[in-house]
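ingest -> validate -> predict -> emit
validate: passed (alphabet ok, no gaps, 195 aa)
predict: started
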Amino acid sequence: MYEPLSDPDTYPGSTVLKNIPDLRDAAALELFEATVTAERAGEPLPAGRLGVRHYQNIHHHLFQDVYRWAGRFRTVRIAKENSTFCYPEFIPAEMERIFGYLKAEKFLNGLVPLEFASGAAHFLAELNAIHPFREGNGRTQLAFMVLLAFRTGHPLDLGQLDPRRFLAAMIASFNGDENALAIVLRNLIARQTAD
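emit:
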């Protein structure tokens, strides 16, 4: 659970995020969220041009049944363990910056798998550090990355993803080392294209 410094998104006297079904128990909300977002993830993702608004639409698609603010940037400062994410007042500019990088890099098109994995790792590491949403950043990141990889001809097989290894790589990338994340992504591409 994230640790906000000030949080109007939670129920009074609680760390449970305000939600559409009005669940006040953290475990019940976690189960509901996992179930409905998995169902939404099985549906076609919103069409778009791989920009900031498209990214917001993907978050909205996944979390529309859970949170009224789905698809909108967070308004509170959050941290997870020792990692403080981008302050909310800087999120719009930082999102434009990282998606500008993606556009300048031609959305990573025309690259060999190793080059794609390296560029994707950099993009994903930066996006994770921004953490634009109050909840659901990881699932939105993966959904977007699958879409990006598919469009560049490097489809990812998330069935091969080791969650612990991926989490460790994401933490390392937050601390400035993107190599492990690039390796994880490259291995997902290699396994998919080797079949």
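The two ends are 37 Å apart (CA to CA).
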